[in-house]
Design brief:
The structure is a single chain. With 111 residues, the protein is mostly helical. Helix content is 71%, strand content 0%. It is built from four helices and no strands.
Length: 111
């Protein structure tokens, strides 16, 4: 069951990072990016299931215990993974801004 949760967390972190980066590329507004990340957290919290799929647990070689994890903990874990991905993406964007790779390309053609 831990493998399934690990895969779900990695996918959530990737989704958070991609959404944050695409929003930043479109708007250049950190507040809007974090707003989109929080919307994704609420979507992950309310729409993702609160327990791993039993078929997927058996497929990855796990056994189904009596689900020792509470549903609230699993849902919170999904949201935390999305936030972690967005935070890592924000760290990368800040490093790119410091090095000058995220400058506005509109005025690059003037000497």
């Amino acid at each position: 069951m831990i493998r399934v949760l690990l895969v779900e967390c990695l996918l959530g972190a990737i989704a958070g990072a991609i959404a944050f980066r695409l929003t930043f590329a479109a708007s250049r507004s950190p507040r809007l990016c974090w707003g989109i990340a929080l919307v994704l957290v609420s979507v992950a919290f309310f729409l993702l299931p609160s327990s791993p799929d039993p078929w997927m647990v058996r497929e990855l070689g796990g056994v189904l215990p009596g689900s020792p994890l509470s549903p609230l903990l699993v849902r919170s874990l999904h949201g935390l993974c999305v936030l972690t991905g967005a935070w890592l993406s924000w760290l990368v964007i800040r490093a790119r801004i410091r090095t000058g790779l995220e400058e506005n390309p509109r005025f690059r053609d003037f000497p």
